[in-house]
Amino acid sequence: MDVIGLILPPSQVGRALWILAGALATLAAVWTFEAYGFTPCELCLTERYAFYAGAPLAALTAYCASRSLHGLARALFALLALIFLANVALAFYHVGVEQHWWPGPTACTGSLSDSVGVNDLMKSLNSVRVVNCDEVQLRILGLSFAGWDVVASAVAAIYSALAVGLKR
Questions:
Q1: CA geometry: angle at 27 spanning 24 and 31, to 5°?
Q2: Once rounded to an integer, what is the mean pLDDT over residues 92-111?
Q3: Residue ranges of the alpha helices (H) in the chain?
Q4: What is the mean pLDDT of the chain?
């Protein structure tokens, strides 16, 4: 088997299993970084929804393909492509927030607009740690976590879209 055959197997089951493996590997990576002390911001947590939905959907796609429900499997590949494409847009938005190209959600960017009492502020500081969406915690090969999410989601979206067009 050549490299192309390995990466893009001839069966829908194999292609769905690659998507499942990619979604699970992405989730394992972010959970590992979290275990090492990198707390995700609100946008980071939202961007994970695509992978939380994509993993079981890819498993369902593999199941349907294994039962010769190839039309349904192709429809599920299309749904996977749309989910990951939407996540590309969300992750790119997050990159723009980090780069200060545009404002981010008020829940995790900017400064206080109302006056706050000292006692309320001290309670908040002791109980809640808000991670700012507009601050990069770590860059790996020049990309932030959000930047890597753009890459991972784009690869998953393209791969899923290719899987739609391939026969069985």
A1: 135
A2: 87
A3: 3-7, 12-35, 42-47, 49-66, 70-98, 118-127, 145-165
A4: 88
